[in-house]
Amino acid sequence: MKETVKVTDKRLEALGEELEAKCKELEARTKEIEELRAQALRLQADFENVKKRMLKEQAEFQESANGDLLRELLEIYDDFERGLSHTPVVKEEMDVHPELVEGRTFSDFRTGVEMIGKRFGDFLKSYGVVPMEAAGQLFDPAKHEAVAHEATDAVPESTVLAELRRGYLMNGRVLRHAVVKVAVKPEKKDD
Fold this sequence. Notes:
Blueprint: H1 2-84, H2 91-96, H3 98-101, H4 106-126, E1 129-131, E2 144-151, E3 160-165, E4 168-170, E5 173-176, E6 178-184
Parallel strand pairs: 2-6
Antiparallel strand pairs: 1-4, 3-6, 4-5
């Protein structure tokens, strides 16, 4: 029986040492898990900070781009106001305020408006915006919005007969669809 107790004591001692080793291993793994959890939380916080910074930078860029766009539009608006200041006068104005009429002709007004149109067109082109041709083309739903149809044999079916509002491309992509009237085949009349 003494031998059984010795064996059992040795067995208990071995189990105790094994248990102690497993406890140390468990502590090490727990510490490693806590470190990984802390690292994951730091990475998540870093990600959130980068995300916030990117959104802020994107908003600042958009504001800056809008500012550039608006500054250029304001120059065109100034030209428009100058053009309007050359509006042709009517007879009633000439009779009431002759001092305001001097030198204002329809030709000056037209020249001013044409100048504004040219500057605005140049401005749009500088941003890659160009008008698209619609009249005479085959209807393309990717470029055109049909709002009217006309029965005719003069052109093939689905041909754009008239452009009601001009469409625009920006860098080759549709910015605004052209609003068009499209040809359809006339209904055949029964005799």
